[in-house]
Every structure is written in structure tokens, then in C-alpha cells.
Design goal:
Length: about 130
């Protein structure tokens, strides 16, 4: 990603912050922006749910247990978090996808997930 170019969201406007509390993003800057070194493509800003946290843990990605050694507080339902696009799509296909904040989801997610699919799981404004 060219740092001179402002990242865009899936709606074609400027990417907004997903979360700074807890701090998220591949670059740990609160944004769900990626670059070629992000093999997981952490581009989908989600409002995590208990169901998604349970699902993710069952898939081998425990997002709820704190990991102080990595500065990770553990997620709770209602937290915003940059989720890997392939993982979100997998959760969607299994009926477990959490709501998506479209304005904070990087346009690169559209390489794997259709805009209609993301819109079908759009979070309510203000979440």
C-alpha cells in the first residue's frame, strides 16, 4: 500500500477508525488497512458478538482470552476489531458472521467478499 494514498473503505470514501480501545489493525493504528505483508488481510471492521467469539475460538483463533505478553486485552462482545477477510467470509458461510462497520472496512476486502454480502451484515450506525 502506498502511504501517500489515503486508504478507501468499501463505500469508496476515506477509511475511518475501527477501534483504538482495544487497539486494532494490522499496523495497530486503529485502522483496518493492509499491505502485502498482511497475509491474513485484516480488513473487515466488525462489532464482535459472543457467538462470533465462540465460533472463532472453536476455529482455533481465540480472540477472547487476554494475552498480556502480546499487549492483547482479549475481546468482549461489542468491541470493534479488524477481522481477516477470509475468516469473516468463512464465518458468514457458517452463519456466524458478526456485524460489519462498512465505513471502517478497507476496500481490499472486496477482493474476497461482495459489497452486497457486507451490506447484508452492516452494523447499526453508532456501534
Amino acid at each position: 500500500m502506498n502511504p501517500q494514498v489515503e486508504p478507501q473503505n468499501v463505500l469508496g470514501t476515506a477509511l475511518v477508525t475501527c477501534s483504538c480501545n482495544p487497539m486494532t489493525g494490522w499496523f495497530r493504528d486503529g485502522l483496518c488497512k493492509t499491505d502485502p505483508t498482511d497475509h491474513g488481510q485484516h480488513s473487515v471492521c466488525c462489532v464482535v458478538t459472543e457467538a462470533f467469539l465462540t465460533y472463532s475460538k472453536a476455529q482455533g483463533n481465540d480472540l477472547s482470552t487476554p494475552r498480556p505478553d502480546f499487549g492483547f486485552p482479549g475481546l468482549r462482545p461489542g468491541d470493534n476489531w479488524c477481522v481477516c477477510a477470509p475468516r469473516w467470509l468463512e464465518a458468514f458461510e457458517d452463519g456466524m458472521a458478526p456485524p460489519v462497520r462498512l465505513e471502517a472496512t478497507e476496500a481490499s476486502a472486496l477482493a474476497l467478499i461482495s459489497l452486497d454480502c457486507l451490506k447484508s451484515h452492516a452494523a447499526s450506525p453508532g456501534t
